[in-house]
């Protein structure tokens, strides 16, 4: 996984992207996969952009997707 640039001030620690999904590891220890089915392709595209920019990802998740993830991954 790629360390998230704003990790020090964010709930997001790291991320990994694929063509239609993003996996996000949070500082609290959970890793979650978001994909085109849940929460949907538009949200995933925004999350990928924010992850690569290193800013705003945790806020976006809290405001738009919350617990609408496709799967919780084993850590």
Description:
By secondary structure, this protein is α+β, with helices and mostly antiparallel strands. It is 29% helix and 31% strand. The protein contains two helices and five strands. Strands 1-2-3-4-5 form a five-stranded antiparallel β-sheet, covered by helices on one side. A hairpin with a 4-residue loop joins strand 3 and strand 4. Helix 1 runs antiparallel to helix 2. The longest helix has 13 residues. The chain starts with a strand and ends with a strand.
- Strand % is 25-35%
Mean pLDDT score, rounded? 94
Number of strands: 5
Task: Give the low-pLDDT segments.
Answer: none
Element order, helices and strands?
EEEEHHE
């Amino acid at each position: 996984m790629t360390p998230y640039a704003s990790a020090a001030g964010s709930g997001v620690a790291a991320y990994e992207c694929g063509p239609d999904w993003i996996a996000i590891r949070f500082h609290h220890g959970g890793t979650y996969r978001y994909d085109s089915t849940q929460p949907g392709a538009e949200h995933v595209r925004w999350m990928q952009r924010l992850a690569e920019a290193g800013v705003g990802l945790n806020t976006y998740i809290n405001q738009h997707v919350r617990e609408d993830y496709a799967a919780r991954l084993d850590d």
